[in-house]
């Protein structure tokens, strides 16, 4: 076909938001449009003149659309270096015209694999091949080609094209953004396929779970006002394809923007309360600086909240509240009844009458952040496909499988002369679910399915026990104790016995277990070992 004298723009987008206005704007500043498949159909349906890419390549789409733009007529037009006469002469010899703007975003792989019934075949068909190739080609040649991957950039580019043109600084910004886009896309595919294939492989499972090269795929969800402290800048990025109930896919329905610390504490609150999502009773957890300062189970959510707040009413002020049931009016009334200020609340959902109760009764209500996360039941099954836990260190990152192991009554090893009662067993398992979410060295005292004392983040275990004793006071009498790791010395159980603890749950495994067991026997304490440690650094 004859060479056009107009500049050319190639549009091929999965996300068609803003497409029509952008295409009309390009035509108004002198561009001729080339497009593919669904994008071409959308433009033509609106009466916008467009060349199908097959008219440019003189080759039809083939293999169910897998091959459309992988052709020299496309990539030659994108990659020709405008500063090299030999490049321009070569493409002219082959009747290839330069392409001056490429607007591409990719097949919705993340949205596809987020579907609960997605098949491997569906996922594979939503791996874009031609799109990343065009993006990378245009970004490589950004001095001559404008590359756009985000509809948010349409207006600024049209403004620049209608004025002095798109500056080199803007072209560089767009090129870097383009490579980030394809990098994130490839990382999402890599992570999903690695998890999928690892689950079905005996030979390569470990190599797929912990690959020799790590690709991380995250997308910015929001900028934060600041980081952990006001002098630090921060943003929140989320992983693609996560279906497990999480802060990443929760919906904020009220309040000012979440801060860096809000997000971190909300995650701690939600992950703790999820431990009780399958319970017949309602659960409430109050978090302060990522540690639970209150947690409880009760027949109603209002009762659970009141019991949780009693765990440490002072620390509850300014904390984060998480619950396992739809937040009802009775609970909202209790939340606002006393001078307890919460930064944020996260719940499966909210009864309609709850929102005004929480947001209009107190001065702080206008800023109260309310998030809904959906049904929490079945989260463990969804978590199985979520992937790994990451902990960053300077210059690197540590990966581990999540600490989702479940301990039941059948897993407990009774090591003392006294066997715990059925009620103590239930209470010990409650304490065990909580202690895994407390910073190590971690000690939790509970009674009547509520926290009465906590010792968190201490350099030695006996000090954590003493902190729990101090907080619990008389409430320690008749309570049980959970420890996230074994006792290296018998001094911790001795302090607990003196406070009135009746039963202990701990991993066991210390060289001084016999001395710890002797302390328990001497004081009539029942003790069980789990064989599992729950360090949380």
Short description:
This protein is α/β, with parallel strands linked by helices. It contains 21 helices and 21 strands. The chain has 3 domains: 7-192, Rossmann fold (3-Layer(aba) Sandwich), CATH 3.40.50; 245-373, 3-Layer(aba) Sandwich (Cytidine Deaminase, domain 2), CATH 3.40.140.20; 409-529, AICAR transformylase, duplication domain (Cytidine Deaminase, domain 2, 3-Layer(aba) Sandwich), CATH 3.40.140.20.
Describe the 3D structure.
The protein is α/β, with parallel strands linked by helices. The protein contains 21 helices and 21 strands. The strands form five sheets. Strands 8-13-12-11-9-10 form a six-stranded mixed β-sheet. Strands 16-21-20-19-17-18 form a six-stranded mixed β-sheet, with helices on both faces. Strands 3-2-1-4-5 form a five-stranded parallel β-sheet, with helices on both faces. Strand 19 (480-483), helix 20 and strand 20 (503-506) form a beta-alpha-beta unit. Helix 4 packs parallel to helix 8 (130-140), helix 8 runs antiparallel to helix 10 and helix 13 (301-311) runs parallel beside helix 15 (329-337).
The CATH homologous superfamily name of the largest domain equals: Methylglyoxal synthase-like domain
Number of strands: 21
The Rg value, from CA coordinates, equals 30 Å
Question: How are strands sequenced across the largest beta sheet?
Answer: 8-13-12-11-9-10
Q: Please describe the biggest sheet, giving its number of strands, its sense, and whether it closes into a barrel.
A: 6 strands, mixed
